[in-house]
Design a protein that fits this description.
The protein is α/β, with parallel strands linked by helices. The chain contains seven helices and nine strands, in the order βββαβαβαααβαβββα. It has a six-stranded mixed beta sheet, sandwiched between helices. Strands 2-1-4 form a three-stranded antiparallel beta sheet, covered by helices on one side. Strand 1 (4-14) and strand 2 form a beta hairpin. The protein is globular and about 45 Å long.
């Protein structure tokens, strides 16, 4: 069974006067343990696709499955991690308090929660800023916190929307190193990017979407030959 199945998915937004199709007959399969990079220019339909995969919006037509179930199934939500393109935080909380809040949502025990949070804060290089209010974080620090919260429940499938955006070169290198570590742990990762170099050292396969249409899918070496 594939970790992610997208079959002939269409997403159209309607208003009183007209309609706009942002994803058009998209079909992709991602195997368990695979790292799949979903690339395309801004406005191509990447974020809309990811929102459908995590159950935040529904397709107009077609079918999506994550771990064999519909994305909005409660059992699926327990097994996925999601980092949105623009993370929203309770800015008056510290980084550690926010992760504790997310851990409580997933029902982590007190002992396991403390251990998991400290480990993640070290991995995303935020341990020294763990007690600083999030409102004082830079954009890059916010990105790293967003990645940490996506990992708090040890997900089987990880959805990341532009996870490297806003990071300085050192931060990008550290984030890539963490993603490679997750890859070695055989996590399934589906992540969006508009920068091809972001996926060079991470992905098993890459798909390119443009104006809602999948225009290429294959290895990173093959995709390098495709212009978009």
């Amino acid at each position: 069974m594939s970790a992610i199945e997208i079959k002939e998915v269409v997403k159209t937004y309607f208003n009183r006067r007209d309609s706009s199709t942002v994803v058009d007959k998209l079909s992709i399969g991602v195997e368990r343990g695979e790292v799949f990079g979903f690339l395309g220019p801004n406005g191509a339909g990447k974020t809309t696709t990811m929102k459908m995969l995590v159950g935040l919006t529904r397709p107009t037509s077609g079918a999506l499955k994550v771990l064999g179930e519909k994305p909005d199934a409660p059992e699926v939500k327990k097994k996925i991690g999601f980092m949105p393109e623009s993370s929203s935080f309770y800015l008056y909380l510290s980084g550690k308090e926010f992760l504790s809040f997310i851990a409580d949502i997933f029902g982590l025990s007190k002992d396991k929660k403390e251990e998991k949070i400290n480990k993640l804060l070290h991995e995303v290089n935020l341990y020294e800023a763990r007690d600083v209010q999030i409102r004082k974080y830079s954009k890059g620090m916010g990105q790293r916190l967003g990645l940490a919260q996506a990992l708090i429940n040890d997900p089987e499938v990880l959805f990341l929307d532009e996870p490297l955006d806003g990071l300085d070169p050192m931060g990008r290198a550290e984030a890539k190193e963490l993603l490679i570590k997750l890859k070695k742990a055989e996590k399934t990762i589906f992540f969006n990017s508009h920068i091809l170099s972001d996926v060079e050292d991470i992905c098993d396969r890459v798909g390119i979407i443009d104006k809602g249409h999948l225009i290429a899918v294959g290895t990173e070496q093959l995709i390098c030959l495709t212009e978009f």
